[in-house]
Amino acid sequence: MKILMVCLGNICRSPLAQGIMEEKIKKYNIKNTFVDSAGTADYHIGKKPDWRSIDIARKHNINISNQRGRQFTYDDFDEFDKIYVMDSSNLYDINALAKNTNDREKVDLILNTIFPGKNKSVPDPYYGGKDGFQNVFQLLDAACEKIATSLIKK
Ligand code: 4NP
What is the pLDDT of residue 29? Predict the structure, then answer.
């Protein structure tokens, strides 16, 4: 199972989602599962995650500082089994790149895992304060826990 986490810049939300999911995979000893992240935009290619994401992850004993930003590409549809996007604009952008319904069926808002059918977004914390990052962490932790437990059952 290959999972891709997607946000706009690939420096705040999706690196956290990747780091949290990797931690759950280790914690539950889930085999044959790989996680990566990407941004829809090209603003931060090659950059480290935002220091506020690195900081909140570190507070939970997760190290995301080795991640580097990259942009989503068409090939990711073939490479990944599941593509979790953070918000409705990511969903729009990724669906616009989909080649067919098979591609589109791989894509979902990550919060639909914990709030099924509600189409909620993980708020973009980039322009806000530290509280925003704490909130993002809690939401992504709950979503990744749900994804991880569903993988254990498989
Ligand atoms: P992310 O947050 O999509 O969670 O990585 C953002 C990062 C950068 C920008 C916007 C959102 N930006 O405008 O540069």
Answer: 96
pLDDT in tens, 62-71: 999 999 999 9
Tally of domains in the chain: 1
3-state secondary structure of 38: strand
Maximum Cα–Cα distance for the chain, whole Å?
Answer: 41
- With H, G, I as helix, E, B as strand and everything else as coil, classify residue 45: coil
The two three-digit tokens of residue 25, written as one number: 């995979």
CA distances (Å), 13 to each of 32, 62, 93, 94, 152, in order?
A: 24, 14, 16, 16, 24
CATH assignment of the domain containing 7:
3.40.50.2300
pTM, to two decimals: 0.98
- Catalytic center residues: 7, 13, 124
- pLDDT tens-place string over residues 105-118: 999 999 999 999 99
Mean pLDDT of 42-46: 97
CB of 40 shorter than 6 A to ligand 1: no
H helix and E strand count, the chain: 6, 4
Q: In terms of residue numbers, what domain contains 17?
A: 2-152
Q: From atom 7 of ligand 1, which residue's Cα is the shortest distance away?
A: 9
- Inform me whether the pLDDT recorded for 153 exceeds 90: no
Q: Which residue has the tokens 């190290």?
A: 63
